[in-house]
Amino acid sequence: MNSTKTSADGSADIFDLTGRRAVVTGASRGIGRAIAIAFAQRGAHVIGMARSEDGLKETAALAEGAPGSLDVHATDLRSPHAVEAAVAVAAERLGGIDILVNNAADDHDSSIEDTDLAVFQRVQELNLQSCWVMIRAASPLLKDGGGKVINIASVLGLVGIRDNSAYIAAKHGLVGLTKAVALEWARKNVQVNAIAPGYVETAMLGDLKGNEALAAYVRKTTPQGRWSQPEEYAGPAVFLASAASDFMTGQVLVVDGGYSAQ
Ligand SMILES: NC(=O)c1ccc[n+]([C@@H]2O[C@H](COP(=O)([O-])OP(=O)(O)OC[C@H]3O[C@@H](n4cnc5c(N)ncnc54)[C@H](OP(=O)(O)O)[C@@H]3O)[C@@H](O)[C@H]2O)c1
């Protein structure tokens, strides 16, 4: 078992992350920040990564006083060399890696005719390639005593919409990567899963409150009639990082207010 804290009477906290060593990418704001803080609050030792030193410092400050810890490493994960170096930094500072959350991504909205090849490639480099490189670089560490990989995909890794082909291709690829590596590592005590968020109020989606057309579209297309907050992904991520999900691998946990149930 991985981080298992079970007891005969079932009273132990199966979501406990005490002493687990975690890397969370895209931790300078949004969903990555919420997940990094939640892990530290559950006792994990976390390294949050992103480009913005200020954003990362803010995330670390928000985790002060948590039973675990939250350290940061500023880097541009679009470069494969930077990803490999980041894994080495995390391994050295934490003494290993048990949990890897591939969350950093950016978006690009335009029709396929209006999207340059260079833009398509840039989106793939961060949203898909960096996750593949990160998993490959961390594999010896993750397989050393059990591990968990959580890829933050999207409902747009499961269904399409118009004018978002570069992002949607990358997110469908990330779902495929999740399944493929889950099968490779199924007997190595490493679980690989994805979370598919619906609409979330973060920088990626822009100003929902100031853009009534977008806000109305999100309300209309989401059965629960609202968008979500980054903190609503902390629980699903803790579940997938903890012993509570030890028999779950290669799956996509969809957290979308019912969007993909239609
Ligand atoms: N928001 C939504 O509605 C939504 C819906 C479905 C899925 N998602 C997914 O959820 C995840 C988190 O998104 P979010 O909504 O929290 O977006 P966000 O607020 O824009 O956060 C993106 C994070 O990625 C980091 N990042 C961007 N480019 C990077 C680079 N080159 N190197 C390293 N880090 C980089 C950003 O930090 P820096 O700028 O400091 O580098 C930031 O911490 C993404 O995978 C996204 O695709 C979001």
From TrEMBL:
Indicate yes or no for the key word Oxidoreductase: yes
Pfam families assigned:
adh_short_C2
- Asked if the record carries the keyword Oxidoreductase, the reply is yes
Q: Name one GO biological process term.
A: fatty acid elongation
The molecular function terms in GO held by this entry are: oxidoreductase activity, acting on the CH-OH group of donors, NAD or NADP as acceptor
Record keywords: Oxidoreductase
Similarity comment: Belongs to the short-chain dehydrogenases/reductases (SDR) family.
Name listed for the protein in its UniProt record: SDR family oxidoreductase
Q: Source species, please? A: Streptomyces broussonetiae
Lineage, opening ranks: Bacteria, Bacillati, Actinomycetota, Actinomycetes, Kitasatosporales
